[in-house]
Amino acid sequence: APLIGVLALQGDVREHLAALRAAGAEPVTVRRPAELAAVDGLVVPGGESTTMATLADRFGLLEPLRTAVRGGLPAYGSCAGMILLADRVLDAPAGQRTVGGLDVVVRRNAFGRQVDSFETEVEVEGVAGGPVHAVFIRAPWVEEVGPDVEVLGRVVGGPADGKIVAVRQGRLVATSFHPELTGDSRVHAMFVELVRAARARDLGEDGVGVGA
Ligand code: GLN
User: What are residue 154's DSSP bridge partners?
Assistant: First the structure.
């Protein structure tokens, strides 16, 4: 099984570990550069993006995270994790830093006070078997996507109708919502498959490393 790390500085780490296990991965927590170097893929959990970035910096992980993601490490971010994987963030505190890699503009806390937290069904491209129950908690949405970014899901209906809430660019996936809170591991399973495919590709068919 692929070894998938969950960035464990802050946020809903436990729920992601459980969802990854249910999706057939071997999950581990990542707090140090050596732990990051060992994983085949990484989940950046939900939580608070500013706090997570500050802690990553303090733990000496921010630069290693940037280097790893740019070097082709598959990563999946939910909610705050989406913010951390985004290249550009609106409504962030001055000086907010991210890991980046996803060519998107996200708006933090985008859904506004009235719909601070809400739940709805979202069809996610690449996830078979019907819509995903999407839980949004002070969630960001994606306001702009670059040319290489695939939109995987949008809100349908309500005040946020049409807003982009799931995206993929190569080995990076992000959702505004928290599939880890629902007991449905299909989004994690999609990511685990992506990690398997990336690993097979990096190893080459003969199992000898040939680079990304
Ligand atoms: N509002 C949080 C942030 O900006 C994200 C909330 C979440 O992850 N549930 O980081």
Answer: 164
Q: Reply yes or no on whether 121 is catalytic.
A: no
Residue 162 in domain? yes
- How far CA 135 is from CA of 34, 52, 116, 139, 197, in Å, comes to 33, 20, 11, 9, 28
SS3 of 10, please? coil
Q: Residue 57 is part of a domain; what is its CATH number?
A: 3.40.50.880
Provide the whole-model pTM: 0.94
- Counting atoms of ligand 1 from 1, which one is nearest the CA of 137? 9
- Which structural domain range is residue 19 located in? 3-203
Per the residue annotation, which of 35, 79, 121, 144 is the catalytic one? 79
Residue 180 falls in the annotated catalytic set: yes
State the 10-residue block means of pLDDT for the chain, 212 residues long.
97 98 98 98 97 96 98 98 98 91 96 78 97 96 98 94 97 98 97 97 68 48
Q: Are 146 and 191 in contact (CB under 8 A)?
A: no
What distance in Å separates the CA atoms of residue 36 and residue 50, rounded to the nearest whole number? 20
Rounded CA gap, 73 and 99, in Å? 12
31 is in an annotated binding site: no
Report angle CA 101, 189, 76 to the nearest 5 degrees.
15
